[in-house]
Amino acid sequence: MYKRILLKLSGESLQGTDGRSICEQRLVEYADQIIEASRLGVQIGIVIGGGNIFRGLRGIERGFDRVGGDQMGMLATVINSLALQSAIESGGGRCRVLTAIRMEPIAEFYSKRKAIESLERGEIVIFSAGTGSPYFTTDTGASLRAVEIEADVMLKGTRVDGVYDSDPEKNPSAVRFETISFDEVYARNLRVMDRTATAMCAENNLPIIVFDMDTQGNLRRLLCGEKIGTIVTDNPQPKR
To answer: Helix 138-148 vs helix 195-203: angle between axes, to the nearest 10 degrees?
Structure first.
């Protein structure tokens, strides 16, 4: 079992099926899975996007300045982080939100030492506001935090069950990979994460597992060693 993980969730995943910015039922389902995983003894860091509320790149299409749009996106991730923190604490978990930009008393400012001390105390730590700088996605923010906290693996929870050679929602004949190398991800131009995030994981020998987070219990099963999702790594047998 992994000792420490970084779980990356998309903001859009919180919408559920009802189209609201945050679906309370989906939030509770995610919180329950995260609490269950924490009780296994796994130290859990989380990064969640803000696309369900505002996405900077879409803001450009509406006339927003890129820097301003990205800053709005950072604030959207803070809203999602606070919502997830509330759901985790309501479910009996201990949770702390750290932000990449100062906004006390809403949340605490990030530092590596503070994050690791919290993880070692058994707290679930949510990293919000991306990297704190424009022009970087929350994928890159997740990769950066994973490397900084010395996580064993990056888990990318999505609505699909792994990495495919084409979009499985558009191509019913798409083939899922059980394991794929970073080099092959580049060669096939597969959108596992953005290129900056993928490169950071590759350069730091940090494996990525892409899996279906929307299936209840999948996070626990993955952490207990079941072959769920797709492993992206240059090591054919990453540490479990």
So the answer is: 10
Any idea of the CA torsion for 127, 134, 80, 19, to the nearest 10 degrees?
Answer: -150
DSSP string, 119-135: HHTT-EEEEESTTSSTT
Q: Which helix (H) or strand (E) holds 109?
A: strand 108-109
Q: Within a 13 Å sphere around the CA of 84, how many CA atoms are in the beta-carbon half?
A: 36
The pLDDT value recorded for residue 21 is 87
> What does the block give as tokens for 74?
């950072």
Stated as kind and residue range, the H or E segment containing 187 is helix 182-188
pLDDT digits (tens, 9 = 90+) for 1-11: 899 999 999 99
| H-assigned helices in 47-165 | 56-61, 66-90, 112-120, 138-148
Its pTM stands at 0.93
Q: Which long-range contacts (CB under 8 A, 24 or more apart) does 186-191 make?
A: 190/163, 190/165
